[in-house]
Amino acid sequence: MCHPSWGAARAAAQRLSDLARLRRVRDLIDREYAKPLDVEALARAADMPAGRLSRQFRLAYGRSPYAYLTARRVERAAALLRGGGFVAADVWRSVGCSSPDVFRARFTELVGMPPDAYRRLVREAAAGTPPPPAVRPARRPAVPIRNREASAAAPRLA
User: Fold this and answer.
1) What is the C-alpha to C-alpha distance for residues 81 and 116, in angstroms, rounded to an integer?
2) Cα gap 42→108, rounded to integer Å
3) Contact 44, 79 (CB under 8 A)
4) DSSP letter assigned to residue 34
5) Rounded to an integer, what distance in angstroms lies between the CA atom of residue 71 and that of residue 126?
6) Which residues have CB under 8 Å from 67's CB, separation 6+?
7) Domain boundaries, the chain
8) Are the C-beta atoms of residues 87 and 81 closer than 8 Å to each other?
9) CATH architecture type of domain 12-132
10) pLDDT 10s per residue in the chain (158 long)?
11) Which residue from 35, 82, 120, 156 lies 20 to 30 Å from 15 (Cα-Cα)?
C-alpha cells in the first residue's frame, strides 16, 4: 500500500524531469537555430510526444517551440544586421530560415520594420543622423491562426 504523499512527490518529480527536458530543448534551439528544426525533431530529442512538448513548452516559456525558434532566428538576424558584415538579402540563409519571404514577414512582425529598413536605421543611428519620422515603433506581433484553429463564422440569418 502506498502512502498518500507519494503520489504528490511522484508528480513533483515528473514535473522537475519535464522542466529539465524543456530546458534541454530550449538550449538545443539556442545552439542550433540555424539548422532545420521542427517540433517533431525537438520532441525526439526530449523523448516526449510532440503535442506534450508543445503544451509543456508553452506553459513553461509562454510561447510554442516554433515561436521561440522564430524569435531566436530574428534576434540573431538583427544582431547580424547591426554588425554590418551581412547584406540583408543574405541574412535569412545564415539564420536558417526556409525562404526570404518567410524571413522578411517574421522579421517585420517581430521587429516592426523590414530587415532593409532596420539595417538602414542602424546605419543612420551609428552615423548620428536622427531616424526618419516615418519609422513607427514596433507593434505587437500578430498571432498566426492555423486554418483548423480558426473559428467557423456563424451563419447569418436574413
Assistant:
1) 9
2) 26
3) no
4) T
5) 25
6) none
7) 12-132
8) no
9) Orthogonal Bundle (1.10)
10) 466 666 665 655 566 677 888 899 999 999 998 888 888 888 888 888 998 888 888 988 899 998 999 999 999 999 888 887 777 778 888 888 888 898 999 999 998 899 888 888 888 877 776 655 554 555 555 555 454 444 555 555 55
11) 35
Contacts (Cβ under 8 Å, ≥6 apart) of 107: 74, 77, 78, 114, 115, 118
Q: What is the pTM of this model?
A: 0.70
Distances (CA, A) of 94 to 98, 99, 126, 142: 10, 11, 24, 25
Residue 23's CB is within 10 A of a number of other CB atoms, namely: 13
C-alpha cell at 156: 447569418
